């Protein structure tokens, strides 16, 4: 058994957005704290995706895009939402005021590291008012929150500076360590167990542990909770498609809102549909969780631009008794899709979907739009997507077309599946503390986060409670 002999004040299990901002807050408030960040991936500067050179995904055992210090945020488009209503719902535990105040606090940290952008979406012009009116006319809720946009490249620069400052202040990072279990005695956290690259078990000890494993580690966290008696409940699954459409169609939204978050309840099933993570002039990305779970995603760079906008259309599905495996359900759908494509994303044009015909490279080549990825197989989404979800997606596309004319055209490409794994909700209090004393859960894997803003807020709130003890 390897591992550290020393006792840490705080271990962050997962060095993503929640972990990095939590560590920043801890060392800022008390420079003498002994802090350790453990992560399955590598340090940010070593996170290199071979696809950048080879042009195609080579399916690394630990994907550098998903795993590694700074988390999913490091390669994300980094739209930072300045409002508690977007990025999670931890406010149901803490109240809205503290979340909004802490979001502002995080924005000020961004500023300290050289990112100072005026958020978009603050003042309404006539185009925005007309758009909002069309949303109202079509029963769509427009969640119009101010947003800052770092871009995928800008976000890398910012996180590099942030992580370097943590290293300078003595925060220890041990990478390529995969979470295995929790060390708990008499209802109190004592440390964590991880596995190194050689598959050897290591123990690290601390009085406080903040877990932030992100979406990529959500399943592992659920297993650990099950094993260690950490209370959790099953939550919802967000399942849908990422769509890509010429910028031209999205011009009004892109130029005025950058991203317009829309929520719609379908008339057929009364299910919740929402737009998520819109990337004007962006690129489609394949998010590889394992060989047979490859999901669609998207991002945008500050400098490199395409001529397409991509965004997710997600259906939030909550399940009732006796079913309690939403994670496995969504994974099974992803596997079925991968089965059809041999491990790529499944893509179909809306025109082909509507007439019940599979897309082919030839049918796609006839469109105005040029896909921004090659990690797809043109096919038939209806063979892998459950009817209810597909009906909801189609209804939402048609409604979106009334707000954004041209949206429901043949040039809309649908990439399947996009899934947000947040199916487990850890039972935490307003301080992010679980039923195990000293064990905190933050960010996406807690089930309360789905964006950079809320992950950072949760990491910071957990640390504030630890320091107050
Ligand atoms: C392509 C993409 C684009 C996005 N764009 C945006 C955006 O524009 N705006 C926005 O607000 N949000 C965006 N998001 C979501 C955002 O990145 C996440 O909400 C945020 O990073 C969550 O922070 P976190 O700390 O909870 O998890 P993460 O940042 O994902 O960090 C989790 C960490 O845990 C580590 N880990 C995982 N499993 C294990 C394990 N078993 N053992 C040890 N370590 C492990 C990972 O390596 C990672 O470092 C995007 C996500 C993706 C994938």
From TrEMBL:
Recite the UniProt keywords alphabetically: Flavoprotein, Oxidoreductase
One example GO MF annotation: oxidoreductase activity
Q: Which residues form the FAD-dependent protein C-terminal domain?
A: 263-417
- Pfam families the UniProt entry points to: FAD-depend_C, FAD_binding_2
Question: Where, if anywhere, are coiled coils annotated?
Answer: none
Query: Residue limits of the FAD-dependent oxidoreductase 2 FAD-binding domain?
Result: 156-218
Highest taxon listed in the record's lineage: Bacteria
What name does the UniProt record give this protein?
Uncharacterized protein
Q: Which organism is it from?
A: Cetobacterium somerae ATCC BAA-474
């Amino acid at each position: 058994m390897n591992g550290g002999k020393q006792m840490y004040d705080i271990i962050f299990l997962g060095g993503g957005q929640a972990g990095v901002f939590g560590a920043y807050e801890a060392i800022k408030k008390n420079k003498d704290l002994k802090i350790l960040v453990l992560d399955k991936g590598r340090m940010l500067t070593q996170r290199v995706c071979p696809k950048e050179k080879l042009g195609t995904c080579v399916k690394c055992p630990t994907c550098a895009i998903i795993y590694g210090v700074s988390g999913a945020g490091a390669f994300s488009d980094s739209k930072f939402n300045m409002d508690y209503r977007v990025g999670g719902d931890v406010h149901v535990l803490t109240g809205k005021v503290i979340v909004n105040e802490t979001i502002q606090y995080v924005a000020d940290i961004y500023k300290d590291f050289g990112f100072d952008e005026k958020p978009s979406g603050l003042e309404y012009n006539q185009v925005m008012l007309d758009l909002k009116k069309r949303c109202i006319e079509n029963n769509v809720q427009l969640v119009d929150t101010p947003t800052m946009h770092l871009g995928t490249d800008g976000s890398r620069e910012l996180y590099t500076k942030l992580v370097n400052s943590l290293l300078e202040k003595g925060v220890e990072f041990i990478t390529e360590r995969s979470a295995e279990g929790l060390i708990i005695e008499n209802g109190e956290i004592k440390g964590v167990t991880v596995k190194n690259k050689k598959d050897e078990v290591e123990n690290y000890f601390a009085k406080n542990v903040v877990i932030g494993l992100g979406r990529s580690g959500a399943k592992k966290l659920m297993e650990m909770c099950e094993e260690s008696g950490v209370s959790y409940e099953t939550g919802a699954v967000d399942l849908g498609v990422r769509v890509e459409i010429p910028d031209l169609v999205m011009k009004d939204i892109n130029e005025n809102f950058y991203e317009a978050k829309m929520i719609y309840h379908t008339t057929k099933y009364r299910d919740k549909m929402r737009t998520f993570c819109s990337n004007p002039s962006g690129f489609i990305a394949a998010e590889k969780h394992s060989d047979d779970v490859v999901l669609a995603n998207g991002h945008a760079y500050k400098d490199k631009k395409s001529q397409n906008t991509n965004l997710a259309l997600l259906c939030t599905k909550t399940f009732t008794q006796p079913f309690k495996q939403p994670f496995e359900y969504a994974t099974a759908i992803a596997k079925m899709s991968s089965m059809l494509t041999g491990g790529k994303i499944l893509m179909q044009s809306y025109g082909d979907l509507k007439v019940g015909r599979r897309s082919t490279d030839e049918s796609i080549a006839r469109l105005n739009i040029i896909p921004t990825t090659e990690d797809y197989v043109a096919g038939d989404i209806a063979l892998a997507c459950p009817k209810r979800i597909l009906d909801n997606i189609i209804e939402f596309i048609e409604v979106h077309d009334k707000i954004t004319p041209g949206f429901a055209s043949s040039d809309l490409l649908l990439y399947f599946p996009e899934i947000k794994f947040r199916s487990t909700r850890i039972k935490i209090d307003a301080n992010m503390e679980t039923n195990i004393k000293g064990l905190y859960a933050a960010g996406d894997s807690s089930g309360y986060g789905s964006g950079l803003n809320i992950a950072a807020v949760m990491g910071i709130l957990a640390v504030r409670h630890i320091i107050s003890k």
